[in-house]
Amino acid sequence: MLPTLSCLAPMTLNMSPLNLIISLLFIMATADPRQNRTSPEHARKENPLKILDRLLKGYDRRSTPHNGMATVVITELYIASLGSINTDNMDYTTDTYLRQKWTDPRLASEHLQEPLDLADPKLVQAIWKPEVFFPNAKEGDFQFVTMPNLLIRIHPDGEILYILRLRLKFSCMMELSRYPLDRQVCGMQISSFSKTTRELQLEWTKEKDKKAVSVAKDLRMPQFELEMVKAKNCDNKIHMGNYSCLVAQFHLKRSISFHLIQNYLPSILIVAVSWVSFWMDIESVPGRISLGVITLLAVSNQASGTNVPQTSYVKAIDIWMGTCTAFVFAALVEFTFVNYTWRTRGKLPGIPTGLETQENLMRIQTNGENHQDKTLLSLEMGSPSCENRTSRLLHRAHRWRCMAVGIDELSRAIFPLGFAVFNLSYWLYYLAIVQEDPTEGLSMDILDDVSVMK
After folding, report:
1. For residue 253, which of 57, 435, 106, 100 has the smallest C-alpha distance?
2. Which helix (H) or strand (E) holds 165?
3. Nearest to 290 by CA among 308, 304, 276, 301
4. pLDDT at position 32, please?
5. Regarding beta strands 71-86 and 91-103, do their DSSP bridges make them parallel or antiparallel, or are they unpaired?
6. 85 vs 26, which has greater pLDDT?
7. Cα angle 82-124-98, degrees, rounded to a multiple of 5
């Protein structure tokens, strides 16, 4: 350690002024700078938790941060998952991060050098926070794995950031008249429960680099595609006052791939197979009957086996399956009419049609009065009247048989053409003409019900 100036005082009497100056400069250069620090620099920074405890001593969490003025709460939503969209119960489940930000001057302190992050549930109970609820929520769970999923960030200027992670099940009133080619709008509503707009005002964030409602980039749903997300404001006006509310609307479009493979393509093939009977011989009754009955049973089983929501009104899939069933049934009825025309109206005199029983055949053979209806016998006898009558019968039978064959040939073109026209009209109507969102106006119904309850 270097000698101090008091110890060197006797030595300086025998030194020249130049040597004295040099010695003083050397002592000052080699001195420990830590010995010259002031006491504030040595003082340690005050613990932020102690500052917070001091702020909470006279804090009243029952009063709003701005007495006499509305507290503006900036709200953000982050949707981590969106799934389990149940068409039967008309609800869906989300894993949501709720972010709320407001300013509380009572928690502002100059001694806080940086924001203070806390995940203490007891602190949530000690400070004022917005009393909000979800009007259209059926169920709600607070996440506790592996600890309570919440965060409170207190800034030195009194700005508070409150983050919650919630698992919520929301109701979604769906219009299924265009199922499975439908679009749905499911809403997530946030409203003030007890504070009117004079005390609490909810607003979506307006920062440029942030979205009011954000969705995870890897969000996937098995039945729907998320087209867009809209954040809107709403006012819940009742006789007790105006309550601020926010609505996040998720515009969903149902994926058609599953239903295209499971319902539409198989039914198209079944209808096309039923047309094969038009190219089969009219007299091949067992084959045409078997084909018609099998295709009718197949399309009926396809219609009944389709897992569709039960509604009191007709859906798009019901129209499709009903029309396919009608086409298959019409093909079976067409063969019945053609076969009846061929075997009755087009019956050739004296030639069995295959419809007579063995008893009738024996009666005809033994009955002498029916000999005049046998063309071959009449021709052998050479009777002119019988010959004219036979020619007329042959001409009439030929005409009816030609009509039966013509109906089959006409059906080969009419049935595919009619089904093609139906397909064009069906897909054009549901994919191009009808495009509005039918349930967008239903998102406020829950708020109306809550207003009545209040």
Report:
1. 435
2. strand 159-171
3. 276
4. 52
5. antiparallel
6. 85
7. 20
